């Protein structure tokens, strides 16, 4: 099917980068590129390298669709460069992305907005090294209890994340998290049903897609469970009572609004035994691979991936550069 309009921009799908999530990003980029081409749109796929700025500076009628995962793609820095160059793009602006990406900051923002969050402690590597693992293990156990979750403050795809059930497991879990960043967050483990909710704004206001329930075969939704076909069962719509599913959708919409996000986000939640959704994290560049939850939710909503992505591109083109729109450009 083609819905090509003569005014449609060329779309530059950015994928790859140098983060630990490069492979996932490339898979997301290929899928979105194919979906946009299926609508008859002009698509270029590119990595992030030294030629990117010159390509963007010399382009006209171009919209960037960033599908870079991990630090370079989701910490806001690339998006601020796009704004600096006056290039419209799909997704949240740099400052909002920066807040959402850092789990230690995002959890605080969500909690201050009245959203349920797990108790959390953020520990820089220097503090952990200087004060010693033994003393901190005891203090963390007293404050958070076991089991607990340990993960890098800045990162995605569950890389460096692990569940800690006993005190003797904590030092190794901290080392694993520090392998992916200088700050680790330690959270009280929330027992319940893991779900994720995508929020999409196609130019008419944000809407929550059907809730996706996540059931990893291993019991832990780690990197392997996320990106290996058959390792996780995704149920969409989630097998939750209607009122709890609605509560999850409302929470995701609230997160999207509180963080000042745009176009597309995905909020990960745990629904506790009392039916209360607890915020885990929010993603501004959710995966679009064959094993990702967002395309599944799009299909359950009766949309096509190509049409949704095309609508997001057109909304970004109509909005234009955020810097110019704010009167900061020339």
Structure description:
This protein has helices at 22-37, 52-57, 71-74, 77-84, 94-101, 103-112, 125-131, 133-144, 170-178, 223-227, 242-258, 293-300, 305-319, 322-325, and strands at 10-14, 43-46, 62-66, 120-124, 148-152, 162-164, 183-188, 193-201, 206-208, 212-216, 232-235, 264-271, 277-283. With 330 residues, the protein is α+β, with helices and mostly antiparallel strands. Strands 8, 9, 10, 11, 12 and 13 form a 6-stranded antiparallel beta sheet that branches. The protein has a 4-stranded antiparallel beta sheet with strand order 4-7-5-6, with helices on both faces. Strands 2-1-3 form a 3-stranded parallel beta sheet. Helix 4 (77-84) packs antiparallel against helix 5 (94-101). Belongs to the D-alanine--D-alanine ligase family. One of its GO terms (molecular function) is ligase activity.
Descriptive terms for the model:
13 strands, six-stranded antiparallel beta sheet, 330 residues
Enumerate how many helices there are, as a single number: 14
Low-confidence stretches: none
Query: Which radius of gyration do the C-alpha atoms yield?
Result: 20 Å
Helix content: 25-40%
Please state the average pLDDT score: 88
Task: Give the tally of β-strands.
Answer: 13
Structural class: alpha+beta
Compressed to H and E, one letter per element, the order equals: EHEHEHHHHEHHEEHEEEEHEHEEHHH
Largest β sheet strand count, sense and barrel closure: 6 strands, antiparallel
How far is the N terminus from the C terminus?
A: 39 Å
How big a fraction of the residues is strand? 15-25%
Domain ATP-grasp: 107-314
Catalytic activity: 2 D-alanine + ATP = D-alanyl-D-alanine + ADP + phosphate + H(+)
Enzyme class: ligase
Keywords: ATP-binding, Cell shape, Cell wall biogenesis/degradation, Cytoplasm, Ligase, Nucleotide-binding, Peptidoglycan synthesis
């Amino acid at each position: 099917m083609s819905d090509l309009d003569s005014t449609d921009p060329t779309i530059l799908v950015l994928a790859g980068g140098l983060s630990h999530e490069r492979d996932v990003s490339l898979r997301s980029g290929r899928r979105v590129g194919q979906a946009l081409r299926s609508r008859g749109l002009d698509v270029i796929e590119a990595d992030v390298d030294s030629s990117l700025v010159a390509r963007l500076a010399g382009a006209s009628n171009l919209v960037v669709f960033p599908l870079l995962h991990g630090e370079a793609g989701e910490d806001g820095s690339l998006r601020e460069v796009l704004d600096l160059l006056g290039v419209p793009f799909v997704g949240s602006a740099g400052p909002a992305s920066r807040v959402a990406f850092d789990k230690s900051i995002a959890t605080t923002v969500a909690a201050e907005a009245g959203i349920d969050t797990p108790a959390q402690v953020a520990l820089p590597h220097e503090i952990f090294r200087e004060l010693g693992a033994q003393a901190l293990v005891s203090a963390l156990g007293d404050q958070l209890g076991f089991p607990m979750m340990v993960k890098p403050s800045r990162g995605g795809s569950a890389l460096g994340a692990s569940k800690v059930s006993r005190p003797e497991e904590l030092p190794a879990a901290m080392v694993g998290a520090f392998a992916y960043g200088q700050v680790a967050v330690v959270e009280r483990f929330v027992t319940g049903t893991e779900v994720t909710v995508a929020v999409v704004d196609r130019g008419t206001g944000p809407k929550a897609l059907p809730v996706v329930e996540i059931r990893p075969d291993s019991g832990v939704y780690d990197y392997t469970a996320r990106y290996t076909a058959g390792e996780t069962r995704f149920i969409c719509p989630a097998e939750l009572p209607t009122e709890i599913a609605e509560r999850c959708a409302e929470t995701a919409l609230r997160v999207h609004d509180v963080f000042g996000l745009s176009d597309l986000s995905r909020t990960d939640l745990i629904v506790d035994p009392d039916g209360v959704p607890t915020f885990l994290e929010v993603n501004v560049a959710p995966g679009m691979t064959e094993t990702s939850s967002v395309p599944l939710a799009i299909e359950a909503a009766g949309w096509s991936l190509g049409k949704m992505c095309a609508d997001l591109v057109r909304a970004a083109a109509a909005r234009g550069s955020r810097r110019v729109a704010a009167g900061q450009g020339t």
